[in-house]
């Protein structure tokens, strides 16, 4: 196969893959701007003419903005907690010496092999005994103190840093916290950025735990709110797609403005 033909085949395959990846999002946009009549009279992949903003106006006129704010608060708190507690735990596992350190670390990391669905019921029972069902505490507590993946990622990055930097700081009289904040953390910006991006995306798209632990509007998030957009025994597709479009917009904005850092995070995650 000649080089031009090979390049043409490659670009055609990439274009087909890109179309398959983007097509579901295109359907969300097209469906969100259709009336109920247009949904039944036009093909799903064709736009409704004229476009209608009735679905967006209806969903924004209800409690959906409140659920969107709840999601923003939940994502911000989880991301902040993950960055703080994960960094401290990873530093302890990577740099501090104490008995049973490696055994404790690998036992903790081994919990990544346990599906999250297995732990949902025990977590719910614990939160019920603590009277934390349908509260912000119950929503945040299981995940705000760090995750095995995040601690593993940060620990591996800490261990990749030269040990001589830490030894030189100790000779100058620096303590563990001074070494962490003034020497190691500035060098860990790529790993911190990776962890922040992963946490924001996973927290924003979280569904199973918020669905189980919350039942009132005070703590309901957008994923749960969208799943509840049903009319009788059917589903109002236009309304659900309007909610999905609103929930999708922040993630698209994050990708557009932080594309370079997202690509770097993917590379860093693969290397680690």
TrEMBL record:
It is found in: Cell membrane. Gene3D superfamilies: MetI-like (1.10.3720.10). It comes from the Bacteria. InterPro entries: MetI-like, MetI-like_sf. It is a multi-pass membrane protein. It holds the Pfam family BPD_transp_1. One of its GO terms (biological process) is transmembrane transport. Keywords: Cell membrane, Membrane, Transmembrane, Transmembrane helix, Transport. PANTHER family: ABC TRANSPORTER PERMEASE PROTEIN MG189-RELATED (PTHR43744:SF12), ABC TRANSPORTER PERMEASE PROTEIN MG189-RELATED-RELATED (PTHR43744). Residues 68-258 form the ABC transmembrane type-1 domain. One of its GO terms (cellular component) is plasma membrane. The chain crosses the membrane at residues 9-33, 67-93, 105-127, 139-158, 239-258. Its main location: membrane. The keyword Transmembrane applies. This is Carbohydrate ABC transporter permease. Belongs to the binding-protein-dependent transport system permease family.
